[in-house]
Amino acid sequence: MGKHEGLEPLPGFEEPKPMVFVGAFPADGKEFNAMDDQMQNLVLNDRSVTLEQETSNALGLGWRLGFLGSLHASVFKERLEKEYGAKIILTAPTKHHDVESYMEPYVEAIMTVPNEYVGNVMTLCLNNRGEQKEIEYLTTGQVLLKYEIPTSQLVEDFFGKLKGCTKGYASLDYEEAGYRKSDIVKMQLCVNGEPQDALTTVIHRSQAQARGKEYVTRFKKFLSYQLFEVAIQAKINNKVVARETIKAKRKDVTQRLHAADISRYKKLLERQKEGKKQMKLSGRVTIKNDAYQAFLRRED
């Protein structure tokens, strides 16, 4: 028998449960084995982190990491980079959902803001599907606001936006507020019909078109021109909710023709058009890791 067998944890002790999950991938796929050892070492020092291997069509071998929050994920990434010199790509944070019953986790957010910024904060909470529970005007010129907000909205830089709309004068605390029924859907980003699983996210149906438009418009900035047309689509249940197109590179094939040779001119243009159609059918868009990194960092 082991010396620890039969020991019971202290009353009130609970195993930490991850609140936020991210995909993590080495910037250089050749570094996977070395980085796997580094990951294991860090997890030994922080038992609240969960670690599982996963594979992405776009980013290769990687891990699925569970954290207590988005700040916890940022600290873990910073430690990995500083202590081991590792270069890593983190996907957008997500929260596990109970798909069978379509339940979504909520938090009760408690904010203290100066009176003059109350309108800004209310608008921010409304835009993030928040529901007001309490408002209290304090004697110090501050206002206490309580909102119930979906966890998925909170982890998407809600605190940064709160600081922005109050010029840094707001404070935020939150605690779990259970699950609610919610019309949540999975949104895929596809490039020429190929899903980019690293950019797949779960959103509320009411945000589908706006978020889809935002995703395709932003991702278009990070893709280079091809010899054929490239379609970037946001899809929900195989239905396209937003689309952007990168036009094909064109070469002036009529440059050396005589101006009067109209039939030859049309023939060359038709041949070029047909060639680009064939390239689009057989060609594959090569997307560099830099494009994923820039998109996930929300760079413009």
Could you outline the blueprint of secondary structure elements for this entry?
Elements: E1 20-26, H1 32-45, E2 50-56, E3 60-67, H2 70-84, E4 88-90, E5 103-114, H3 118-127, E6 131-137, E7 142-150, H4 151-154, H5 158-165, E8 171-181, E9 184-191, E10 194-195, E11 201-204, H6 208-220, E12 230-236, E13 239-246, H7 262-282, H8 289-296
Antiparallel strand pairs: 1-3, 1-4, 2-3, 5-7, 5-8, 6-7, 9-10, 9-11, 9-12, 12-13
Q: What would you note in describing this structure?
A:
With 300 residues, this protein is of the alpha+beta class. It has three domains: 20-90, 2-Layer Sandwich (Alpha-Beta Plaits), CATH 3.30.70; 103-181, Alpha-Beta Plaits (2-Layer Sandwich), CATH 3.30.70.240; 186-296, Alpha-Beta Plaits (2-Layer Sandwich), CATH 3.30.70.2570. The protein is built from eight helices and 13 strands. The protein has helices at residues 32-45, 70-84, 118-127, 151-154, 158-165, 208-220, 262-282, 289-296; strands at 20-26, 50-56, 60-67, 88-90, 103-114, 131-137, 142-150, 171-181, 184-191, 194-195, 201-204, 230-236, 239-246. The strands form three sheets. Strands 9, 10, 11, 12 and 13 form a five-stranded antiparallel β-sheet that branches. The chain has a four-stranded antiparallel β-sheet with strand order 2-3-1-4. A hairpin with a 3-residue loop joins β2 and β3. The longest helix is centred in the last third of the chain and has 21 residues, at 262-282. It is globular. It starts with 19 loop residues before the first strand and ends with a helix. Keywords: GTP-binding, Hydrolase, Nucleotide-binding, Protein biosynthesis. Pfam families: EFG_C, LepA_C.
